[in-house]
Amino acid sequence: MISAVIPIYNEEELIIQFHEAVSDALKRTGDEWEVVYVNDGSSDSSLELLKALQAHDPHVVIVELSRNWGHMGAISAGLRTASGRAVILMDGDFQDPPEILPELVNAWRSGAEVVVGVRKSREERRKLLAILFPMFYRVLGALSDFPIPLNAGIFGLMDRKAVDSILAMRERSRYLPGMRAWIGYRNAFVYYDRQDRAGGDGKLSFLSRIRYAMDAITGFSYKPLRLSLIMCAVSACFAALLITSMLVATTPLAITGLGIAGAVFLVGGFVLLAVGILGEYIGRVYDEVRDRPLSLISRVHRGETQVAASSLGSALPNAAFIVSSGVNSVETSTRAA
Ligand code: UDP
Ligand code: MG
After folding, report:
1. 63 Cβ below 6 A of ligand 1
2. How far is CA 89 from CA 130, 137, 273, in A?
3. What are 312-326's pLDDT values in tens digits?
4. In whole angstroms, what separates CA 326 from the centre of its chain?
5. CB distance 40 to ligand 1 below 6 Å
6. What pLDDT digit, counting tens, does each position of 160-172 carry?
7. Collapsing DSSP states into helix, strand and coil, what is residue 213?
8. Mean pLDDT over residues 173-198, rounded?
9. For labelling, which of 73, 157, 230, 256 has a CA lying 20 to 30 Å from the CA of 115?
10. Model pLDDT, residue 325
């Protein structure tokens, strides 16, 4: 069985045609298949449309989350629910083209355990993002302590082994392309042209993109911390220079004053930047320690049956209905039960 996991947040314009395209592509693989749609607290008619699709197509599984948890929370819930021996991850807006799914599956059949979709080109109508994406990949490439395929998002396929490994990774700040590279296994790459979304507006806010970019950098690099160490050393040198020059001052007072002001701003700026960098890491440490779930499922709709998370929980005390990242999810839900 092959599962496709697709996060859905207010995609009413696209769902019907998207499902048609995905199911056509999955049929072509010749395997058993299911499509796990994770409704990430949509406020439009997405959920109703998914239920209507399910009424006609038993391949559809709907995971209803308790609220909007964001892209990564939705994906984690989907990964936990998917039962396939291979799991495809893709967005529900045609930016990850359904027609190349058979290619991903073929690469898996030929022995790859992780198949990564790499963007040959990218169409982006939002100008600012068109500038920021390449910048982000350049910075990540330079900083990461671990080689992460650049120009790749979540799109790809993972063997069951790889999916279980990702679910066993406990971290809360999740940069999936990095995690997928980190787990290893036999990798294959499939190249594609990334189109703009087929309809509707982008659902990720600018702030959530920045947070995701910071997750990527802090999750896979200590270099920013080392950079703050260097900045501290540079400011210490400046301070020493300043004190020396004040002791042997021969320059007019105005220039010295300006010099002092400049140095204070520079040192102050460096210190604040270093504190900011530290804050990014410490904030994430706090998230890890609190160990909150990545997302909560309120219901899973499978064909005719509908499973409420709470009843699942009471029937099976260890059921991981609290979607967390792996081993500790069971602990969390046991505690909750
Ligand atoms: N999405 C989600 N929860 C959110 C935001 C987005 O599940 O809070 C879904 C969305 O429906 C889409 C995918 O995640 O299927 C990617 O979102 P989007 O296309 O807006 O991101 P972009 O492609 O612009 O990075
Ligand atoms: Mg998109």
Report:
1. no
2. 23, 21, 36
3. 433 333 333 444 333
4. 16
5. yes
6. 999 999 999 989 9
7. helix
8. 93
9. 73
10. 38
| Closest C-alpha residue for ligand 1 atom 13 | 91
Query: Would the CB of 95 count as within 6 Å of ligand 1?
Result: yes
Phi/psi-derived region of residue 13, left when phi > 0, alpha when psi is between -120 and 50, beta in every other case? alpha
- The type of residue at 268 is G
Q: Ligand 1 in contact with 76 (CB < 6 A)? A: no
Alpha helices for 57-88 (secondary structure H): 71-81
Q: Counting every residue, how long is the chain?
A: 337
Contact predicate 17/93, CB 8 Å: no
Does the pLDDT value for residue 240 go beyond 70?
Answer: yes
For residues 63 and 37, the answer to whether their CB atoms sit within 8 Å is yes
Spacing, Cα 128 to ligand 2 middle (Å): 15
pTM: 0.84
Which protein residue's CA is at the shortest distance from atom 22 of ligand 1? 202
Query: How many whole angstroms from 161 Cα to the centroid of ligand 1?
Result: 26
Q: Can you say whether the dihedral through the CA atoms of 148, 152, 155, 156 is positive or negative?
A: negative
Residue 295 has pLDDT above 60, yes or no: yes
